[in-house]
Structures are given as structure tokens and as C-alpha cells.
């Protein structure tokens, strides 16, 4: 891989992403190997998550390795002990670290000091592991990434950041519809435009969900208030009221368009039950693909491929 760590989806180049996705498809046929036998993954979480924890633990076991789960209460990142000190100690014990943190700076510090590969399992800036699963899902359902049009409706959050960068790297057209003041930050957009120039991806930012969704191949949304933004939840329900993905909005996309959500979902807010349970919904395929994409990621980082 381009980088010894995965802190941002842009730590991978186009070739890395395509190779991982296609290998993950093949890996589903026979996932159990001893490729990471005698290797240990530390799962270091400041934020809880069922999908992230279980998918990493199962993936590592399928590869013949071991896992150790460490919660914030046990470690006290940045409170009981500094992040650099935690990183240097863990780096003496384990072979890979997957960290789910409140701030992106924490995963950067872990990577700087640990001396072993560090995976961003979610930060406030990006969610690259989720996006690898998303790309795998799109590839399986559509047979390609390049030329696919993805419409993202909602908050310009960590998931949106990683989706935009991944789309720009792989030649997917990316449209985002967000309320004013809630779109993707300028530096991320500028970085994506550089990638898009090379890949041919078309990028579009709008405040109109209908404009973004028209003739899209994929419609994607996420919660309006992420973990850690609970105090903004009531305000955000008002601001995002016109950004719900419902059957009317989906009808503007292509007839064979996919609906995607990284879960957990707030049904009745950013998306309706009707859309979540429709034949177009691939949300549980996405969730399953966290396992398969992360297994391939662990192979690359853990074996040095």
C-alpha cells in the first residue's frame, strides 16, 4: 500500500483501492486463512460501535490472528495517560492498532509514535473503513466504480469527507446536498478536486437534494447529528428537515439506484422506513462488507503487502 497506515482514505491511491475491493470480492469465497497467525490487533475505542468492533474481531480471527479490545475507561487516552505514551507502549505489545477516536489528531499521534500500522476506525474527520465497505458494495452491485454517480444527502461529516475523497480517487461522480453551513469543508473539497482532475470524476455541491439525486446511481445519507453532537440534535432536526431521503426523493434517481446508509440510522429523520426496507436498500450488505473490506485491509497492513 501507499502508506503504512490508514488514517485517511487518501492514504490509499487508486490502485490500492481497486486492488483491495477486487481482492475482497475473492476473499469472500474462502475467508479463513492463517495469513496473520501470531499477529495481534489492538482495538482501541473512545467511542462504542457494534459493527466496527465485531467486524474487526471476526476479520482478525478469520486471518488466524488475535484481538485485544481496549475501551476509553481502561486506557484513558489523553486523560490518564498521554496519547504518545499509550502509542509507544501498545507498539511494544501488538502488531496493528485500530482506533476509534473523537478527534483525528488522536489517530495521527498514535500513528506517529506507535511504530506499528494504525487504522482509523472512525474520527471526527474521516471514516475510511466504512467507505472501503461502501466501495466494495457499489462494485458488487454495479460492476464498476468509475463513472458511477453517487448522491450524498445531509451533513458534510466524516463519512461525507471520506466518500468525497474516495469518489475523486476512483473516478466516481460525487454530488452532495447540504444546508448552508453544513457542507464539506473547503480543504477537503480542494484535495478532492486535485484527485478528480486525474481520475475524471465530476464533483458537485448544492443545497438542493432534488438536484443532487436526479439520475443518480447511488443515494447515500447519514444521521443529522453524529455521536458527540447530541447537544445540537434539536437544532439539526430543524435545519435538515428538508433533507430526508424518502420515496419521493428516491424516485428522482435511476430506477435501479441503490440506497445506502452507514448505520445506525434514525428512521423517520434522515430516512424513512419505506426506503430503508425497499428492494433498493443495500444497507445490510454494506454492514456485512465492513468485515470483508477490513479483512483485506488487515492483510495489507499486517503482512506488509
Tally of separate helices: 13
Strand order of the largest sheet: 7-6-5-8-9
| Share of β-strand residues | 5-15%
Number of strands: 9
Structural category: alpha/beta
Name the shape in a single word: globular
CATH class of the largest domain: Alpha Beta
Helix proportion of residues, in percent?
40-55%
Tell me about this structure:
- The protein has 305 residues and is α/β, with parallel strands linked by helices.
- Helix content is 45%, strand content 14%.
- The chain has helices at 14-27, 50-62, 72-75, 83-93, 104-114, 128-142, 158-170, 186-199, 209-213, 233-239, 247-250, 273-276, 283-303; strands at 40-45, 66-71, 96-100, 118-122, 149-153, 173-177, 203-206, 218-221, 258-261.
- It is globular, with a radius of gyration of 19 Å.
- The model has no long low-confidence stretch (mean pLDDT 96).
What are the main properties of this structure?
305 residues; alpha/beta; Rossmann fold; 2 domains; 5-stranded parallel sheet; 4-stranded parallel sheet
Amino acid at each position: 500500500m501507499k502508506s503504512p497506515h490508514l488514517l485517511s482514505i487518501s492514504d490509499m491511491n487508486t490502485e490500492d483501492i481497486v486492488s483491495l475491493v477486487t481482492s475482497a470480492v475473492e476473499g469472500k469465497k474462502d475467508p479463513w486463512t492463517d495469513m496473520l497467525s501470531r499477529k495481534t490487533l489492538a482495538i482501541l475505542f473512545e467511542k462504542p460501535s457494534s459493527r466496527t468492533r465485531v467486524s474487526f474481531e471476526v476479520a482478525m480471527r478469520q486471518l488466524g490472528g488475535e484481538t485485544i479490545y481496549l475501551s476509553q475507561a481502561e486506557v484513558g487516552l489523553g486523560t490518564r495517560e498521554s496519547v504518545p505514551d499509550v502509542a509507544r507502549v501498545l507498539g511494544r505489545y501488538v502488531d496493528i492498532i485500530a482506533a476509534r477516536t473523537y478527534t483525528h489528531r488522536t489517530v495521527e499521534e498514535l500513528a506517529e509514535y506507535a511504530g506499528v500500522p494504525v487504522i482509523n476506525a472512525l474520527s471526527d474527520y474521516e471514516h475510511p473503513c466504512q467507505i472501503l465497505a461502501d466501495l466494495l458494495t457499489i462494485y458488487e452491485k454495479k460492476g464498476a466504480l468509475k463513472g458511477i454517480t453517487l448522491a450524498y444527502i445531509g451533513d458534510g461529516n466524516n463519512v461525507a469527507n471520506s466518500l468525497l475523497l474516495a469518489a475523486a480517487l476512483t473516478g466516481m461522480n460525487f454530488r452532495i446536498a447540504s444546508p448552508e453551513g453544513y457542507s464539506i469543508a473547503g480543504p477537503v473539497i480542494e484535495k478532492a478536486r486535485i484527485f478528480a482532475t486525474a481520475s475524471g470524476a465530476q464533483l458537485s455541491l448544492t443545497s438542493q437534494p432534488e438536484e443532487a439525486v436526479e439520475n443518480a446511481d447511488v443515494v447515500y445519507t447519514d444521521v443529522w447529528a453524529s455521536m458527540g453532537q447530541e447537544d445540537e440534535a434539536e437544532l439539526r432536526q430543524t435545519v435538515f428537515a428538508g433533507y430526508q431521503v424518502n420515496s419521493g426523493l428516491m424516485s428522482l434517481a435511476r430506477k435501479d439506484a441503490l440506497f445506502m446508509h452507514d448505520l445506525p440510522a434514525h428512521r423517520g429523520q434522515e430516512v424513512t422506513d419505506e426506503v430503508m426496507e425497499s428492494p433498493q436498500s443495500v444497507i445490510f450488505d454494506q454492514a456485512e462488507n465492513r468485515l470483508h473490506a477490513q479483512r483485506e485491509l488487515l492483510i495489507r497492513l499486517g503482512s506488509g503487502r
